[in-house]
Amino acid sequence: MTKRLQSITSKLPAVVALCLLILLWQFLCQSGAVPAYMLPSPVQVIKALVTDLPTILEHASVTLQEAFYGLCIGVGLAFVMATLMDHFQILNKALYPILIITQTIPTIAIAPLLVLWMGFYMAPKITLVVITTFFPITVGLLDGYKSVDKDSIDLMRAMGATKIQIFFHVKFPTALPQFFSGLKISASYAVVGAVISEWLGGFEGLGVYMTRVSKAYAFDKMFAVIIFIVIISLLLMGAVNLIKTLSLPWVRVEKKEALE
Amino acid sequence: MVLLKAEHITKKYSGRTIIKDINIELHKGELISLLGVSGSGKTTLFHVLSGLTTPEEGRVLLNGEDITSRPGQISYMLQKDLLFPHKKIIDNTALPLVLHGMSKKEARKKAQTYFEDFGLEGTEYQYPSQLSGGMRQRAALLRTYLSSNGVALLDEPFSALDTITKTAIHRWYLEVMQHIELSTIFITHDIDEAILLSDRIYILNGKPGEIRDEIIIKEKKPRAEDFYLTDEFLAYKREIIAKL
């Protein structure tokens, strides 16, 4: 009971700060300090969200598909890439700088190129999501593999373990917490990446809908989509956290032991 | 009967000789200690004996068979307990059996039969973080035992434990060793521990490290708890200090 109370109390400052920010926003709009055509009030945004929800959900199903496919491919690629880079040092030396460079290129700059190369359907959007999501996971896994105690590897070798056995019994499980940290970041990037790519071309999706409402100067609807994206991203991050908690029971036990 | 034999072992790292012309023997059921100052090459010798590294000269024989540079033939417990945090105690201890091809179910079943001897009953489905330092050492020792061909190398296995836990685990270790007949070489910096546990003590000293002396502890095992206080014990201790 005390721990539950502590957990609630620790989250309280963030909740209070968020509520105050929304109240300030509402006050600024209501008092006329900011014109309504520039910044709709939170109440207007919520109204727009409720009214537009069926349309938003329709577009969101496309965006979520792109994000999901992109994230899955990104995870797969990251796993293969990080594992190969960890195993072959020459590959690590050759590819790590390129990986870093790919992250310095703004997503918004690549998106039009991808649309030109791949057309207006899902392919360029998924590709952009892959590009944005696979880096945090690759780096997370690489760091995780590197964090393995050298003595643990020696112990496994002394027990006669093969390289594959060392990987599956020690390296991969040790890297899992870092993998999930990367996945959490990537999950939020996935939706944002899909939306950005939709801005630059397409027929459906939250990004396409955003460009339409912005051209109509319907800022309340635009904010409604933004809030919807934030909610989806938070839900995805929450889902990753839940999978992490279920997949890493020993981490949960360690935390509990540390608290006692 | 000689179980493990190291003949003329010389090992170099980056051109520097770490150990030179080491000859040691381990007989069945025996417990021998390697005592020496830091940097005298004790851990290097264990790396050679366990097959983790290849010596420039010499060979290691197990029951007469050459096992030089062949890991997995004898078990090796490193300085830390190195229990894997993501595996339950039963799976940590059963790991060597799984690595050698046994199914997880069978390996768990076999490991389980030793839990009582090793004082680990009730910890099977706990994670290492839930165990005390002494219990973790016991679990690591069981894993070492299950990966052995009757021979275990223990590198300062009790150094991280507090004095009370260490005394308790010494007593337990001597009892369990009698029962399971594991022949052991162990590294220690603790002269008292070496005298209490060993049948023989090798003094490894110098740079490069060489076997300088061999001391035989004649008292029968398991030794009494007050062995520390006897004149014989102090005589051994004086002799070792003089040779270190």
Structural class based on helices, strands and sheet pairing of chain A: mainly alpha
Tell me the fraction of residues in β-strands of chain B, as a range.
25-35%
* Pair with the biggest interface: A-B, 23 and 26 residues
Oligomer: heterodimer
Sequence stretches where pLDDT stays below 50 over 5 or more residues of chain A: none
Shape of chain A: flat
Question: Major sheet of chain B, described briefly?
Answer: 6 strands, mixed
CATH H-level superfamily of the largest domain in chain B: P-loop containing nucleotide triphosphate hydrolases
Second CATH tier, the architecture of chain A: Orthogonal Bundle
CATH architecture of the largest domain in chain B: 3-Layer(aba) Sandwich
Largest sheet features of chain A = none
Instruction: Please tally the β strands of chain B and state the result.
Output: 10
Query: CATH class of the largest domain in chain B, anyone?
Result: Alpha Beta
CATH topology of chain A: MetI-like fold
Cα(first) to Cα(last) distance of chain A is 14 Å
Strand order of the largest sheet of chain B: 6-7-8-3-9-10
Q: What is the rounded Rg of chain B?
A: 18 Å
